[in-house]
Design brief:
Layout: E1 2-5, E2 17-20, E3 37-41, E4 54-61, E5 79-82, E6 90-92, E7 96-99, E8 102-105, E9 122-125, E10 129-131, E11 149-152, E12 174-179, E13 186-190, E14 195-198, E15 206-208, E16 214-219, E17 227-231, E18 235-239, E19 247-250, E20 254-255, E21 263-265, E22 272-278, E23 288-294, E24 302-306, E25 308-313, E26 326-331, E27 348-353, H1 354-357, E28 359-364, E29 367-373, E30 376-383, E31 388-392
Antiparallel strand pairs: 1-2, 3-4, 4-5, 6-10, 7-8, 9-11, 12-13, 13-14, 14-15, 16-17, 17-18, 18-19, 20-22, 21-22, 22-23, 23-24, 25-26, 26-27, 27-28, 29-30, 30-31
């Protein structure tokens, strides 16, 4: 059936729209029977045929069937086949939050007032999962994740007016911790190199990647949902969703051991600078700190400068300058082992470079360092003849 509009020259007083009905029945020898049809799955795929716990299919004519369907005014009939339940058919239950592939309690579980009369008793509580509403998967043939589990009454929410507290004792000393901004998620790094995460303000904790040892983590300055945890190798992990998932990547160099900040961030979310060790194994005659930059959140890295003490993006949230400019504290003589450098013999220069440091210029010949403050860039310069330090902004 076609609905069309007549050209102006063909229009008559009866109207300008027409409906054309084409009937191809006479081109076929007979009307189709049940054997001439096959199942056609509306959502087919290698691994995702089941959506919301079932497959959906219709009947259609086989490609080689020489017949016509008929039933012109009957809508296609939808059929469903329930699938075995899988992990994708479940979501976190009320009062539980997603953390990677787990659902963790957001706090003590609310229970009816008469369930735990004895604080030392137990109760049957939520597993943390529930079947997604409207999902029709078959639990008898698949995974059952929403069955009630036995829990101690001490884990339940106290009665109204009662005060409770939660204590978690780590196996080693805490050396670094931080909250994700505007979030209930906390990261903690211990002296033994382990990193722990809580998504519910410390009520429960999980250890991230138990087989790894970490040296530092960074929460991205300009984004509340990104963080990076660095191992002692070139491998590191990053999150873009407040720790709900962590993904591995590899840095271009080992983390530097010169005391420099390893990662610097940019107001543009995917811009990074990494300062690492270069040629510091073996005799280490050319051991140095080398900086690389990335514009795709660490998937690819490009060279910035070598023999540096610090390299950072010039642009800041309030310092609105060239987004590609990089500033480095760079040693004037670029040879030998950087660990043996002396400030008077090999001064630090402040070098600025636009177009990702491809066009660079020495800004100051001898500096102590630089810092960004609000919309200002502050530089401390050494003047040996007068034996003083000048500050520039």
């Amino acid at each position: 059936m076609l609905v069309a509009q007549l050209a102006r020259k063909d229009q008559t007083g009866s109207g300008r729209f027409v409906v054309i009905f084409l009937d191809f029945a006479s081109t076929r020898s007979r009307q189709c029977t049940d054997n001439d049809f096959e199942k056609w799955y509306a959502r087919s795929g290698d691994k995702h045929e089941c959506i919301m716990g079932h497959k959906q299919w219709y009947r259609r004519r086989k490609p080689d069937a020489d017949c016509y369907v008929g039933h012109k005014f009957d809508d296609p009939v939808e059929h469903e086949e329930n699938c075995p339940c899988t992990n994708e058919d479940y979501e976190c239950d009320y009062n539980f939050i997603r953390n990677g592939d787990q659902c963790l309690p957001a706090g003590p579980e609310p229970i009816p007032a008469d369930v735990c009369r004895d604080a030392s008793g137990t109760y049957m509580g939520s597993s943390g999962y529930r079947l997604i509403p409207g999902n029709t998967c078959d639990k008898s043939r698949g995974i059952v994740k929403d069955a009630k589990v036995q829990k101690d009454c001490s884990l339940a929410q106290p009665e109204e007016g009662e005060v409770t507290h939660q204590t978690f004792e780590f196996a080693s000393e805490i050396v670094q911790y931080a909250y994700f901004k505007e979030s209930t998620t906390i990261l903690v790094r211990l002296h033994d190199g382990t990193v722990w995460q809580s998504s519910n303000e410390g009520y429960t904790w999980i250890q991230l990647f138990p087989n790894e040892r970490f040296i530092v983590f960074y929460l991205r300055s300009y984004s509340n949902d990104r963080a990076y945890i660095l191992t002692s190798s070139q491998k590191y992990y990053y999150t873009t969703d407040v720790g709900r998932s962590w993904n591995p990547l590899y840095a271009p160099l080992l983390s530097n051991t010169f005391g420099a900040v390893i990662m610097h961030f940019h107001p543009i979310s995917d811009y990074l600078i990494w300062t690492g060790n270069a040629d510091c194994e073996g005799s280490a005659e050319k051991c140095r700190a080398e900086a690389r930059y990335s514009t795709d959140n660490g998937r690819n890295w490009r060279f910035v400068e070598e023999y540096v003490r610090n390299c950072a993006w010039a642009r800041d949230a309030e310092l609105k300058i060239d987004a590609t400019q990089i500033i480095c504290e760079s040693y004037k003589e670029k040879k030998g082992n950087q660990r043996l450098f002396q400030a008077n013999a090999n001064p630090l220069q402040l070098v600025g470079g636009t177009q990702f440091f491809s066009k660079k210029k020495v800004l100051f010949d001898r500096v102590v360092g630089f810092a960004k403050f609000s919309e200002f860039l502050i530089v401390a310069e050494v003047r040996l003849a007068a034996i003083w330090i000048d500050f520039h902004s």
